[in-house]
Amino acid sequence: MAKFSILKALSRGKSEPNTVNFEGGRAFTQTAKLEFVSILLTTFLEDEFYRSEKQTTEKIRELIAKVDDVRFVAKAALYARNTHGMRSVSHMVAGELAKSVKGATWSKSFFNQIVRRPDDAVETLAYYLAVYGRPVPNSLKKGFGAALGRFDEYQLAKYRRDHGSFKLVDAVNLVRPKSTPALSKLIRGELAPAQTWETKLTQAGEAETAEQVVAAKSQAWCEMVRERKLGYLALLRNVRNILTHASEVVDELCIQLADERAVRRSLVFPFQFLAAVDVLNQGNLKGADRVMDALNQAIDHSLVNVPKFGGATLVALDSSASMEGRPQTIGSLFAATFVKASGADLMIFSDDARYLSLNRRDTTLTMANSIPFASGGTNFNAIFQRANRAYDRIVILSDMQGWVGGGAPVQSFAQYQKRHAIAPRIYSFDLKGYGTMQFPQERVYCLAGWSDRVFAIMQKLDRDPQALIHEVESVPLEG
To answer: Which CATH class name applies to 306-473?
Structure first.
């Protein structure tokens, strides 16, 4: 989790759609710089509804060339990796930059900063070698060498990737960092296995009989939960395993899942909470009800970060077919959060639009799960045609693939403003980063994706229309 980019603010100039989206609807282009940030903070480099992984990769390369500002590209990659926890896409961009920033005074610092974990260096080098081969640029070697020298024995052992085709020891031998005791042990093969939850389970699976394996795994899961050896994301991913093999520690599991501080610092994306919920809903797992209560509490903890916006707010959620998957789960949770925390009205739209009432006394998760998705097409015009009151703020959550009614709602938006004698702020969220907008960037705040910082950014927009772009530009890049 992670994931929004901000375009320019409202002005009263007229603008007409200048492109079409994947559905053939009229739309607006983004500038190359803003489209690049958008895709960087929303893609997980996997197949999507309208675009394959290969097409996304090609699009990123194209945008890097279009941006024509390698320092901005580098800062955006650092921002994506270090602020929003985006990994694969930052590895790719770092690999692409390695080819084009030879001799730049800041390049060594960039490659040092992009490495938060040892496997960041491994993945980036693997990408570069697969795409461009040898030799590897010296700036990449020096930056990664400095980064790898920061890690201790535990960190190197945890991410050494012994079963991969390109291992951490291969990366170390390639970049030749300054020797440290931990790196020397890695090269000599003397690092003790990191006692991670994965290694504990591997060791448990080496018992002689099936009964011993079951008992060893149960003991391993119990120890890891009781000793708090699992990170927050690992807890979420292993809810099924813990309840299956170690149901006796369900109370401790619930305490850790509902830990407000752990939720805040975990960088877990909203959809990953819902994935754990899906597991609980799929089978008769002992203690599932209590764990579900803990997850409800965890999601509700996010409400403390939601500011109180003045005036009337409408949240319009795209319920069309192309929202299936991650956009749907993130959009539903975002909408429920805003409704519960800020008292906003909720509207869902596809071919048409309608208001939807949610019980604000329910938990955020319960509210999100109650939002229906009708499939069908995407009609942005319907939002403004059905809105029956004056709103100070309209938040639109969609993949921006509007086509019903022609696409971009230029006329319907103008008519809504005239009908209610109001000029609302529009926060238009692109949950996929496909590259086109349903509004011109000079008329609204166009954002992309989701982040736990999104509400703070929305507040910043009142003072600075290009808040996120300025945040990217303020990322330190020495040299």
So the answer is: alpha beta
Q: For the chain, what's the residue count?
A: 479
| CB atoms inside a 10 Å sphere around CB 289 | 10
Structure tokens at 87: 């990994």
Residue 89, amino acid: V
DSSP secondary structure, 349-362, as one string: ESSSEEEE---TTS
Chain region(s) in the chain for CATH 3.40.50.410? 306-473
Q: How far apart are CA 248 and CA 383, in angstroms?
A: 50
DSSP-assigned beta bridge partners for residue 318: 349
Q: How is residue 164 annotated by DSSP?
A: S
| CA dihedral for 119, 123, 129, 134, sign (positive or negative) | negative
Task: Tell me the mean pLDDT per 10 residues along the chain, length 479.
Answer: 30 43 43 73 49 73 89 94 86 93 90 96 94 94 96 91 88 96 94 68 64 82 90 89 92 95 74 78 86 91 72 91 77 87 91 92 90 82 94 84 56 90 82 51 54 63 67 84
| Ordered strands of the 19-20 beta sheet | 19-20, 26-29, 436-437
Pairing of strands 445-448, 425-430: parallel
Q: What is the DSSP letter of 283?
A: S
Distance CA 452, CA 37 (A): 17
Distance CA 270, CA 274 (A): 7
Calculate the CA 245 to chain-centre distance: 31
How far apart CA 128 and CA 100 sit, in angstroms, is 12
Per the CB < 8 A criterion, the answer to whether 147 and 101 are in contact is: no
CA distance 90 to 99: 15
User: Is the distance from CB of 183 to CB of 144 less than 8 angstroms?
Assistant: no
At 347, give phi and psi (nearest 5°): -130, 140
Query: What is residue 404's DSSP assignment?
Result: G
Q: What b/e readout covers 296-312, taking b as 16+ CB neighbours within 10 angstroms?
A: bbbbbbbeeebeebeeb
135 upstream amide cis, omega within 30 of 0: yes
Residue 324, both tokens: 């299936």
8 Å CB contact between 271 and 330: yes
Distance of CA 98 to the CA centre of its chain: 24
Q: What is the pTM of this model?
A: 0.68
Residue 251's CB is within 10 A of a number of other CB atoms, namely: 11
* 3-class secondary-structure state, position 475: coil
DSSP H helices, 46-106, are 53-67, 70-82, 88-100
How many helices and strands, by DSSP H and E, does the chain display?
24, 9
Question: Where does residue 356 rank: exposed (0-12), middle (13-18), buried (19+ CB within 10 A)?
Answer: middle
Here the tokens at position 229 are 């050896």
CA 283 to chain centroid: 28
Q: From CA 217, how far away is CA 94, in angstroms rounded?
A: 39
